[in-house]
Amino acid sequence: MSFHRDIAIFDSTLRDGAQAEGISFSVQDKLNIVTALDKLGVKYIEAGNPGSNPKDLEFFKRVNMLELKNAKITAFGSTRRRDIAVTGDQNVQSLLNANTPAVAIFGKSWKFHVTDIIQTSPEENLNMIKDTISFFKSKGKEVIFDAEHFFDGYKDDPEYAFKALQAAIDGGADVLVLCETNGGAFPFEVYEITSKVVKQFGQQAIIGIHCHNDGGMAVANSIMAVDAGATHVQGTFNGIGERCGNANLCTIIPNLQLKKNYYCVESSQLANLTSTARLVAEIANVSLNERDPYVGRSAFAHKGGMHIDGVNKAPHSFEHISPELVGNERRFLMSEVAGRSTILAKIQKIAPRLSKDSPETKEIMSKLKELEHLGYQFEGAESSFELIIRKHLGKHRPFFELGHFKIVGEQLSQDQEFSSAAMIKVKVEDREEITAAEGNGPVNALDKALRKALEVFYPELKSLHLTDYKVRVLESTAATAAKVRVLIESTDGEDVWTTVGVSTDIIGASWIALVDSIEYKLLKDLERKIKPYL
Description:
The structure is a single chain. By secondary structure, the protein is an alpha/beta fold. It has four domains: 8-284, Aldolase class I (TIM Barrel); 301-392, no CATH class; 400-457, 2-Layer Sandwich (Double Stranded RNA Binding Domain); 464-534, Double Stranded RNA Binding Domain. The chain contains 18 helices and 16 strands. The protein has helices at 27-40, 54-63, 90-97, 111-117, 122-138, 150-156, 158-171, 187-201, 218-227, 249-259, 267-270, 273-284, 305-313, 340-350, 359-374, 382-392, 442-454, 506-530; strands spanning 8-11, 44-46, 72-78, 102-108, 142-148, 175-180, 206-211, 232-235, 301-302, 331-332, 401-410, 419-428, 431-439, 465-473, 484-491, 496-503. The two termini are 36 Å apart.
């Protein structure tokens, strides 16, 4: 396949992404993300400011030991400070000591920032840009110049914004990145301004784009910049970043490659996009937005019976791409509007011989209706429904038996939160295990105690943890005696699944969902082990 042109993908998850609220990467976290992004085929990985904190200094020491196949590690920092020689600037020296093949240098292109924020003269700012870039070029570095606030600067004073780019060119910059730092520009503005930059400087340097999402248009702005001639795109995985986040590379990469015919990564590696997005979310300890394009769990999820029928007959009628291209999968949601064909498809995954007229099929469909009447909802909780099918067909054996559990809750004083503890006894074959755990609440304590007991028999459960917990009251008129539905989302770092439980007792409903979650994990691991021998 021939592409229109190559686009260099520059990932800033470890730098800009780390500035997002609630995000904090350890050194090992960063190394794990670097390895995943390199495998995907990202060209540049911006890994932080080596002069900002000891953690980044440690990271740069260790990352240089990795054998990367695709990515260039890029240190990030500012131009030299005002009225100081570049060789005497401590942050510049830290950048140099990071020993990376490329450096990203940001400098001011908005005159207002020059005079009012860093409080220097417009001429000195241009010298700061040129001197710093020239210094790093003399050291053999590839230099990427981030023109901070470029679009605001251009709209305020286009002549000075261009002078900032020219200063970078004069210093020998390899890439000029137009930063839409405030995130408020519209796509047509980004296209028009980027086109003028490409016309003026495109023969002297690569033109790049860096967008923030404050107006909800970071992806669109990035794509418009590429259409205007930019060949270097910066962003973060899953769009994490300060305020509303950065341009989401998980959306940009497939849009450019699959829709616009621009080369970003190897086509064979594009199929790892979803798993990489989930890995980054897992390491960042945030939930991947299930409605994110391409990589979200709902991106190819279908619920309405007519839609499902259409997808079965002609997938492209309701899907803009094949989900396998980005490593995602098609999902038909179980609900009262899903249709018989959807339920049959779920059954046939486990028992292919069954047809819509098989007695077992009719029994399972009756069971589904009965459970929905009791308050169960299997939309988004297909894992529980799969276990119900297996149990009904005799294709499931329990991995453990509950002896008993006891939960104790107490409040030590009015100023302290409730403390909960759970004690549990489980049996696996002829062996028993009794253990206890404390938690932030009764369900959390029960979850910890159950997994702690079962890890003795199933060490693989150490990778399992809950990522979401939802409770829905089904009969509000019954007040505290109401029936509740509990949905639990779980992950082992690779897969994500949801299970459901219903009861008039919130702990009982949680227990049902917890057990299903663990059973599903163990069942899938068992199938992976025996599959090569089938």
